[in-house]
Automatic annotation (TrEMBL):
One of its GO terms (cellular component) is cytosol. SMART domains: PKS_ER. PANTHER family: QUINONE OXIDOREDUCTASE PIG3-RELATED, QUINONE OXIDOREDUCTASE-RELATED. Residues 11-322 form the Enoyl reductase (ER) domain. One of its GO terms (molecular function) is zinc ion binding. InterPro entries: ADH-like_C (IPR013149), ADH-like_N (IPR013154), ER (IPR020843), GroES-like_sf (IPR011032), NAD(P)-bd_dom_sf (IPR036291), QOR-like (IPR047618), Quin_OxRdtase/zeta-crystal_CS (IPR002364). This is Quinone oxidoreductase. It comes from Microvirga aerophila.
Length: 324
């Protein structure tokens, strides 16, 4: 029998419990994975709190790395002994082992460690679709990225800088400003002390930016629109401060024929061919050294509640993993 973090009711970190579970045998199209490292992501707190729906009792987490221990009938994408990682699929990554749809697993290449993979599959693939697909950032672009010292932010800042962009990022304190700057953010803005709209105006000479990437949501959405140049794109991909209130679409016309999108990794990586292509580009940019994946915090899996407390208290930076 294996162990896993589960919850029987929604609420704060205290609802997470360490339980014995039966991982079971893989069926057709499935594989059983023994986890070595598990990714911690802010979206996990939405599921735990009830902001995102889950059938109770429930496992938690959708990102991990490990080794394939068994495969079911018809599986050709992976084999026993493969080092693999995944992001997406059903909840339940906070576990010592689990059965997964095999078509969601990506074989890890040499040069990518299990801990790196667990720290970057969701965050790195999110950065990939944001800056390589939703709006393809290129040389000469100036972009605004909120939460630049977060897990997605540190990867996205490095990647955008590597393709020749100028990166403006918001952060919460001086320590995070230094961290963001060391990872490609040219202009860290302390939103706790500065008006980020006015700073963006000053940095761009009044031209503003063609794209804003916002995972904060309620607290930043309205002002983020004011940072956009005419026909600019607002990319809302999270809501750490709460859900954005209903918006009068006429405001988009008033502020310059703006665009708004609410993308998800699930949609972008739904087809296996797209998943593999996105993962390959991420692996390539990491192995080249252009993007460094740094695990800044590590917690034992059984201490997931403490990890959630620290994450929501904004005590963490960059990537955090749970170890088995």
């Amino acid at each position: 029998m294996a162990h896993a973090i589960r919850f029987h009711e929604t609420g704060g970190p205290e609802v997470l419990v360490w339980e014995q579970v039966d991982a079971g045998q893989p069926g057709p199209g499935e594989a059983r994975v023994r986890h070595t490292a598990i990714g911690l992501n802010y979206v996990d707190t939405y599921v735990r709190s009830g902001a995102y729906p889950a059938s109770l009792p429930s496992g938690l987490g959708t990102e991990a790395a490990g080794v394939v221990e068994a495969v079911g009938p018809g599986v050709t994408d992976v084999k026993v002994g493969d080092r693999v990682a995944y992001s997406g699929g059903p909840q339940g990554a906070y576990s010592e082992e689990r059965v997964m749809p095999a078509d969601r697993l990506v074989v890890l290449p040499d040069g990518i460690s299990d801990q790196q993979a667990a720290a970057m599959m969701l965050k790195g693939m999110t950065a990939q679709y944001l800056i390589r697909q939703t709006y393809k950032v290129g040389s000469g672009d100036t972009i605004l990225f909120h939460a630049a010292a977060g897990g997605v932010g540190l990867i996205a800042c490095q990647w955008a800088k590597a393709v020749g962009a100028t990166v403006i990022g918001t952060v919460g304190n001086d320590e995070k400003a230094k961290l963001a700057k060391a990872h490609g953010c040219d202009h860290p803005i302390l939103y706790t002390r500065e008006n980020f709209v006015e700073r963006v105006r000053g940095i761009t000479g009044g031209n503003m930016v063609p794209v804003v990437y916002d995972s904060v949501g309620k607290d930043t959405f309205s002002s983020s629109l004011d940072c956009l140049a005419p026909r600019g794109l607002m990319v809302l991909f999270g809501q750490s401060s709460g859900a954005v209130e209903p918006v009068d679409l006429g405001i988009l016309a008033q502020k310059g024929s703006l665009y708004v999108t609410r993308p998800t990794l699930r949609t972008y990586a739904d087809k296996r061919a797209d998943l593999l292509a996105m993962a390959q580009e991420l692996f390539d940019v990491v192995r080249s050294g252009a993007v460094k994946i740094e695990v800044n915090q590590t917690y034992p899996l059984r201490d997931a509640a403490k990890a959630h407390q620290d994450l929501q208290a904004r005590k963490t930076t960059g990537s955090t993993i749970l170890t088995v």
